[in-house]
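Hey team,

Filing this mostly as a record. A colleague (T.K.) asked me to run one chain through the structure pipeline before their review meeting, and I want the input and output archived in the tracker in case anyone asks later how it was produced. No errors, nothing strange. Just documentation.

Input sequence:
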Amino acid sequence: MLKLLSICIPTYNRMNYLSELIDKLIVQVKSAGIDIVDIFISDNHSVDGTGDYLKGVSSQYDFIKYVTQKKNIGIDRNMLFVMSMAKSKYIFPLGDDELIEDNVLSTLISQYLTKDLDLLVMNGRHVEANHKVRHHLPIHLNDAIFSNPIEAFEALWDKMPMSSFIVNAKSLEEIDDVKYLGTSHAYTGIVWDYLIQKYKSFGYVNIQCTSEPIIIFRKIPKTWRANAAKIMFHEIPLWFKKLPKEYPKKTVLEYMKSQSNILNLLTYRASGQLDQSFINSYMTDFSKQEKKKAVLIANMPLGLSKIIMIFINILRKVKRILW
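Output structure:
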């Protein structure tokens, strides 16, 4: 039977975080209704005991189903794979290191998923190391509604990390499962493809945002940080290039300009990710002026860039204390 919602979790070597998330989801799925919600997990060939854990928990609950990949298939393929496991009207891609707020799943279903939505973008709380909380969506997007995907794209394209949205499963019906590979954002590329195609066919889409926080984005080490420069300077621009031509080009130009500011470049230089070889390989789509700035910073001694960033971080901490 087609269920209403499938929670789809890609995971890799995060059994401790995953088990905490699953424990909380089990309680809420039981409350919302096991006949309308299920959980799918794709283990990307973990070596930390995740497979044994999933075997045990899935044997206890019929609404939990999992697959262990025979080899690591990469982040994009694993995300798309677990989304394709869904057998429901809506798909909720959820990161293995995040949590959902207590008692929100039933409310989420009753208030939003009984409507014919194409995309629901959810507010959340980013919990920082100092326990300060930052809301995911700015106030002007609380309860926002969009019928035009181009307008929605300009407002939401950078507000949709893993765990922050629920999408209509129709987005996967005619999926091109190779188009966005290598962008680390294949899971959102297919969403924006679906939205523009529906808009061209029917003249509208139904996109909504929540105001109340649904997701808890935890401040824990992210595996992608080691490749952050490549993702930000190469993979995301590549993602923009692969999107349907209807989406405005000015958005990617603004993005590339913001990424190539001096502070960003200093950060990547201090982490050892920015050098001349990197610029030659991964900044081919940036303007000459943007690449000149990058070359200037890349030629800075690594030790000096680290000292500058230490000083900048001290100033940031002082500013937070004073303000």
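Quick notes for T.K.: The chain has a mean pLDDT of 94. DSSP finds twelve helices and twelve strands in the chain.
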